[in-house]
Batch of 2 targets.
Target 1
Amino acid sequence: MTRGLDGRVAFVTGGARGIGAAYVRALHDAGARVVVADLLEAEGAALVADLGERARFAVLDVTDEGAWTAVVDEVVAAWGGVDVLVNNAGIANAGPIEHYPRAKWDAVIAVNLTGTYLGCRAVVPTMKAAGHGSIVNISSVEGMRGSRGLHGYVAAKFGVRGLTKSLAVELGGDGIRVNSIHPGWIDTDMTARIDPSGLPIPMRRGGRPDDLTGTVLYLAGDDSAYVTGAEIVVDGGMING
Ligand code: NAD
């Protein structure tokens, strides 16, 4: 059992499907109460119904500042605070730079980077009041290197990595830790059109959402009590492949 998650409140954005849903199940299995926050109402409601009373769903567009305030206030009123925030909601898009319009750039920056900033800002007051907290920001291997065509996505994921480190410096004295996870190719709707057998993955297989759950539990709970501002790559070795 991961230390320090029993009874804690964990908030996962983009938690209704894909990697986020795997984080939700793992945190719930570790004893946490879990908030699934997503745009996808049917998927989110089905997931929390399956998990039972230690799970609740909130409709949340992570780019909407007012919605963040409302949802976090609701969770604090119901469950007393937010101990863990996993900023996982994300979208991806691509195209050669001459055919990469402003709308694509704005959309990917808004969800992946601004959404992460808004989430951190929304939960810090309750974490400061509690004197502890763990924020886990989901970046990517694409937040550590260039990648053809993924201009806004790469910029956003580098931004998430940088924001993680500035927050770790600022919030360490308040007992709030902030770290990032950098997945490689993971089998979800986001990557459905990419065949992992063509990728230079030393472990010779694509990743599955469950390949990431040990890392999120480690960073969310007390086993990483002295870890902040860190980045953990979970990619079967792809970034070095
Ligand atoms: P996914 O598309 O399966 O799931 C993304 C989830 O985010 C969905 O439930 C979606 O509804 C939600 N979402 C999107 N926009 C939102 C918004 N504005 N507000 C709230 N929720 C929103 O993708 P995934 O593969 O599970 O990706 C999860 C995270 O992991 C993303 O941040 C992604 O960039 C990152 N990541 C994924 C991979 C991969 O290979 N799949 C690799 C590296 C990083």
Note: The beta strands are 9-13, 33-38, 55-59, 84-87, 133-138, 176-183, 231-234.
Target 2
Amino acid sequence: MKNIVLIGFMGTGKTVVGRRLARRLKREFIDTDAEIEKLMGKTVAQIFARDGVVRFRSEEELLVKKLAKREDLVIATGGGMVLNTENLLLLKENGILVALTASPEIIYDRVRGNKNRPLLMHGDMMEKIRELLQERENAYKAAEITVDTGNSSIVEIVEQIT
Ligand code: S3P
């Protein structure tokens, strides 16, 4: 069966929803950020600080290439994965893309205490969220299904995807 691939901005719930969805469908769950952290033996924040964003994106691309060849997975991607069109196309060939969304205010509430979001650590966090959201809005539209995670429980969100 085709993979289910969760895309969407930071803080839209890709990891939490993906884990629950995988359990419900009895599928393997893969979180690309966690895989890259395991592979490189560092947190995402450390990778950005020590190796740079370009290195992170190339690790992400390599991983996507591997995952796109597999089946029956639930995959939670990093919020910036969609910036690489080739990644998106590869994942779409063998997967159903599901975009999770939330308002900038809800995203801010969910991510503000988290130190592992290097792109939001400098300057005004709310401003950065709005700016990046605007830049990426179109890319997230590549999904076949879009689910707003702002006002629903995890169970309700999983229900909408299945
Ligand atoms: C990023 C999102 C993060 C992580 C990295 C870059 C982005 O993933 O991949 O910090 O560019 O939006 P989450 O969406 O899981 O936070």
Note: The mean pLDDT is 96.
